[in-house]
Amino acid sequence: MAEASLQGKLIEFKGASLAVMTAHLRETEATRLADAMHMMLGGMPDFFAGEPAILDFAQLTSTPDRVDWTAIISLLRRYQVQPIGVRNLPDYLHDGARRANLAILGAESLSAERPVAPPPAAAPAPAPAPAPAPAPATVASPAVAANDSAAPQPGPQTLVVERPLRSGQQVYAKGGDLVLLGGMSPGSEVIADGCIHCYGPLRGRALAGARGDTSARIFSTHFGPELVSIAGVYRTFERGIPQSVAGRHAQVRLSGSDTQLTLEILPLQGD
Amino acid sequence: MARVIVVTSGKGGVGKTTTSASISSGLALRGFKTAVIDFDVGLRNLDLIMGCERRVVYDLINVVNGEANLNQALIKDKHCENLFILPASQTRDKDALSEEGVEKVLKELEHMGFDYVICDSPAGIEKGAVMALTFADEAIVVTNPEVSSVRDSDRILGILQSKSRRAIEGREPVKEHLMVTRYSPKRVEEGEMLSYKDVQELLRVPLIGVIPESDDVLQASNQGTPAIHLKDSDVATAYQDVVARFLDEDRPLRFVAYEKPGILKRLFGGK
Q1: Rounded to two decimals, what is the model's pTM?
Q2: For B224-259, where are the alpha helices, taking DSSP H only?
Q3: A85-99, B205-219, B228-242, B243-257: lowest mean pLDDT where?
Q4: Distance from the A243 Cα atom to the nearest Cα atom in chain B, whole angstroms
Q5: How confident is the model at residue A248 (pLDDT cuts 50, 70, 90)?
Q6: How far apart are CA B195 and CA A249, in angstroms?
Q7: Domain for residue A152, yes or no?
Q8: Chain A residues inside the 8 Å CB shell of B157
């Protein structure tokens, strides 16, 4: 009986908005891109876990006569990036992209993207195969956020997570702050466009200012992360968390000309 | 209402099946009508631990596929009046499990008047493990006092929070219990092992018990007798304590302090 009522709508089309990663390509030569990807992600072929991406060519350094789309797509697929469309591509290259089943998107198609910020500064701490700091608009796509995430759908305001965040879970506070009331375990990841406030152990990866807000900060009552990042400037703790802040109330902020991460104790009253 | 309890861990070899066997036996000894289901399709073990491997005719997959009914497949335990075992299939794999099939089996057990259904989860975070925890009301997370086991338990806790029916339907979350097994106070004392306090601090889940490392467990497995039935064994006492705590009785933690053997004991040996 339920079948009869559904007969009329075996398929439905609805509008939906999607947080999506953009990949800014400054080069179209697949071999050089492959080298760059290998440098960036050598040890982590599944880093992107099937995330969809839009390829943006606004920053192309040279204009190629033709583009080997098959090579570029298979390269990205190897790192589990799913290219779904292109934008800011010179008109004469559109036909090729279409033939490669990529959607041609206008600049207005991505409403949420901000002006392109400078590329992320190098990590202050040396790391052999560092995770790429998320460039502006490199946000958690639903594909990744859905990965065992107990998080509610990202809303525009502050997102409060009451339970401990477990290894493998990921939460993204879109457009606002993220408050963690139960702390986070190693192997979990939190991303916020604003600040991250963690009441409890901060043990996973915490990325604040994901869309380039350099005034974002990370606050924690028990500092011990695997990685912290603010507006793309990141730091890992291969040699351990500095004694001065390990396990204590601490904050992370950008200082200098927004290129240095500062870790410091929070002077809390009544402590 | 039948209460569904999943015994899970993420990591293999930590003592899930031993725990499932002992807790289900303990509940049955207390007079509750209890079923224990082996979800490790393809790597059937529970029947060995329970000592009923020679009586397996039909299994969980037969029931799921409608090739046998539950009454035919349930094996009556040889030690406890109220305990029934539903073995896994050894010749199939986890793909033979379906959510509808498992739900049907659990519903039927409820109709048959079972008080508790213990689901013995396979290791890993793939289909078999997810099927075992999907319908859980409570979860006993079995962890060994070492970091990789703790990390995996953390991961499975995250999956409980996102993939269990209770989580998906937004009902009261699955009640979590932490159980530390293969605990050696001596090795903790010597700094070779995490203490149960460390484990609890890392996972932030209420502790339901600590089971000491003991040769008795291996012996019990070989005999096909759940460890809780052993006479004069710390392991049996510890499992009885766990069952008592599960039923909201107050029991102090035992077997967690290390006592240096006295000179006589060292000279003359003995347990």
Answers
A1: 0.68
A2: 234-246
A3: A85-99
A4: 20
A5: very high
A6: 25
A7: no
A8: 164, 166
Domain count within chain A: 2
The total number of structural domains in chain B stands at: 1
Which of A105, A121, A150 is the endpoint of a domain? A105
The CATH number assigned to the domain holding A85 equals 3.30.70.260
- Indicate if A175 and A243 belong to the same structural domain: yes
- B18 known member of a binding site: yes
Read off the CATH number of the domain in which A235 is found: 2.160.20.70
Q: Which of A197, A158, A201 is nearest to A180 (CA)?
A: A197
Residue to mutate among A185, A198, A199, with most B CBs inside 10 A, is A185
Give per-residue pLDDT as tens, A130-165.
344 443 333 333 333 434 444 455 445 899 999 999
Nearest to B154 among A149, A163, A187 (CB): A187
- End-of-domain residue from the set A81, A105, A129: A105
C-alpha to C-alpha distance for A199 and A134, rounded to whole angstroms = 24
| pLDDT band of A117, cuts 50, 70, 90 | very low
Cβ atoms of A198 and A206 within 8 Å: the answer is yes
**What domain range is A65 assigned to?**
18-105
Chain A contact present for B154, CB below 8 A: yes
- Asked whether residue A192 is assigned to any structural domain, the reply reads yes
Instruction: Report how far residue B109's alpha carbon sits from residue B71's, in angstroms, rounded to the nearest whole number.
Output: 10
Interchain pair B158, A182: CB under 8 A:
no
Q: Which helix (H) or strand (E) holds A42?
A: none
State the angle between helix axes of B127-134 and B147-163 in degrees (0 to 180), rounded to the nearest 10: 60
The two structure tokens encoding residue B252: 């102090």
Q: What is the CATH number of the domain that holds B200?
A: 3.40.50.300
**Span A217-226, average pLDDT:** 95
Question: What is the CB neighbour count within 10 angstroms for residue B98?
Answer: 14
- Within-domain flag for A119: no
In this structure, the answer to whether residues A174 and A262 fall within a common structural domain is yes
Inter-chain touch B158–A186, beta carbons under 8 Å = no
Contact B154 A185 (CB under 8 A): yes
A256 with A163, same domain: the answer is: yes
Domain limits for position B43: 3-268
Q: Are residues A165 and A255 in the same domain?
A: yes
The predicted pLDDT at position B91 comes to 87
Give the ranges where chain A is alpha helix by DSSP (H).
2-6, 30-41, 69-78, 94-99, 142-145
What percentage of chain A exceeds 90 in pLDDT? 33
Using CB atoms within 10 Å of the CB of residue B95, give its burial: 0 to 12 exposed, 13 to 18 middle, 19+ buried: exposed
